Amino acid sequence: MAENYIETYYRDTLNTNNPRPSLEGDTDTEICVIGGGLAGLSTALGLVEKGKRVTLIESNRIGWGASGRNGGFVAKGYAGGYKQLVKKVGLPHTKELHKLATHGRSLIKKRIDKYNIDCGPVRHGVLGVSWNNHPEAVKDYIEFMRNDLNAPLEFWSTEQVRELCKTDRYYDGFYSPEDYQFHPLNYVHGLAKAIEDQGGVIYEATKAEKIDERSDGGYIVNTANGKIKCDQVVLCCSIYVDDLNKKLKYAAFPVYTYVMVTKPIDPQLLDSALNTEYCIFDNRYAQDYYRRLPDNRIMWGGRVSIKGVPKNLAEIMVRDLLKVYPQLEGAVESEYAWGGSLCYAPHKMPQIGQLKPGYWYNTCFGGHGLVPTSVGGDVVSSAIANGDERYKLFEPFSKLNFAGGPLSPYVAQTVYYAWRARDIMIEHFSK
Ligand SMILES: Cc1cc2nc3c(=O)[nH]c(=O)nc-3n(C[C@H](O)[C@H](O)[C@H](O)COP(=O)(O)OP(=O)(O)OC[C@H]3O[C@@H](n4cnc5c(N)ncnc54)[C@H](O)[C@@H]3O)c2cc1C
């Protein structure tokens, strides 16, 4: 049974909420993209821009998953983190992946401009703040990013940070002027319109149930009420892939994270706590990430869990906010609170590649997916349309190693405890 959007601030501030039809009957196309999140939409748009015939199908609504529920931070990088990447694949390879991320971030901006996508306010500036007092570690990181990856991060002293984030929870940090924020669900709808305007076809409430290989080459994607005959197929199903492909299913595990949006707050009072429109995040794994919305609300994201959405989520999130900004006690009331599922491989990097000729996957973007989904869409569409081999930069992470299979919740639990342990260390050493 197809699901509509869950209740979020984004759903209630959508510019246009026009549903697409579901597939009834058989059809054919060159490429069938499965999954209408940002990975699928970016792939489909890249393909139609290169003159390909594309049909995209989505089980629920486009942007129904993480792509329509996230914090809206469009920040360069990958969930795996650059320092870890250098350890795994070396500096030259990391530089190439970083170049892709830089390109992916500007591609989003270009598309917003080119297709006139009303997903603002698009505001620049992301500030990473420290939960612990270790300026040398922050300076080391900035030096690495500047010298090795040419990323223009700025060091901010504790005083500078606290001038905007009026809390003694934070110490120094780094400012990234080129990262920005937007309204992700309006962006999703803008991409979908751009696809359709260029001849692409989108079906919602249409789940791919099975993929058959054709004896004459190509594939048949089977849905409840019709089949799609295609030359190539791209799976962008994230953690919802289920039995459509067991290899992909077993190579990833789910992690939940949460967002709460307050009711509008008196602007003067808000200035006395969060006196900036920048996106803010701290340096714990289960970090707080938040921003001020145009109508003086706070969008507060945070926490990770393997257990779904707690009943008292709003209360928990307000409590987290007040731990950082106790001066807002009594002034903060939640209006929305929701959760979403992230798709992680143990190495925390995207999984992008081909299972067999013409059978692609573009998935597993974790908690840092807005830029990487644009990268994945770009490299996969360029590979299909032009034989571009940049997607092979993801080969070290595309092996689809077993991440626990039916035991994946336990794997997730173990990984989660390791991440929590790291956060507890950070908190301990910050005292
Ligand atoms: C609460 C939250 C906050 C986040 N904050 C940020 C942030 O600020 N910045 C950032 O960079 N990242 C953030 N992320 C992560 C980011 O949103 C994701 O990495 C990214 O959106 C993943 O996109 P996707 O297309 O792979 O997956 P999804 O958006 O989950 O889309 C997958 C889609 O595939 C569909 N599907 C699955 N199986 C089938 C099938 N068989 N047939 C048809 N359709 C199918 C699903 O219905 C779903 O709509 C956040 C995520 C969450 C949940």
How would you describe this protein?
The protein has 431 residues and is α/β, with parallel strands linked by helices. The protein folds into two domains: 1-111 and 183-252 and 347-400, FAD/NAD(P)-binding domain (3-Layer(bba) Sandwich), CATH 3.50.50; 123-181 and 253-344, D-Amino Acid Oxidase, Chain A, domain 2 (2-Layer Sandwich). Helices cover 34% and strands 24% of the residues. It is built from twelve helices and 17 strands. The protein has helices at residues 9-12, 38-49, 82-89, 91-114, 135-149, 158-164, 184-197, 246-250, 267-271, 313-324, 370-386, 408-429, and strands at residues 27-34, 54-57, 73-74, 123-129, 154-156, 173-181, 201-203, 210-213, 219-223, 226-235, 253-262, 279-282, 289-292, 298-305, 334-344, 351-356, 359-363. Strands 3, 4, 5, 6, 11, 12, 13, 14 and 15 form a nine-stranded mixed β-sheet that branches. A hairpin with a 6-residue loop joins strand 12 and strand 13. Helix 2 (38-49) packs parallel to helix 7 (184-197) and helix 3 crosses helix 4 (91-114). The longest helix has 24 residues, at 91-114. The protein is globular, with a radius of gyration of 21 Å. The model has no long low-confidence stretch (mean pLDDT 94). Flavin-adenine dinucleotide binds next to helix 2, strand 11, strand 15 and helix 11.
Characterize this entry briefly.
This protein has 431 residues and is α/β, with parallel strands linked by helices. 34% of the residues lie in helices and 24% in strands. The chain has helices at residues 9-12, 38-49, 82-89, 91-114, 135-149, 158-164, 184-197, 246-250, 267-271, 313-324, 370-386, 408-429; strands spanning 27-34, 54-57, 73-74, 123-129, 154-156, 173-181, 201-203, 210-213, 219-223, 226-235, 253-262, 279-282, 289-292, 298-305, 334-344, 351-356, 359-363.
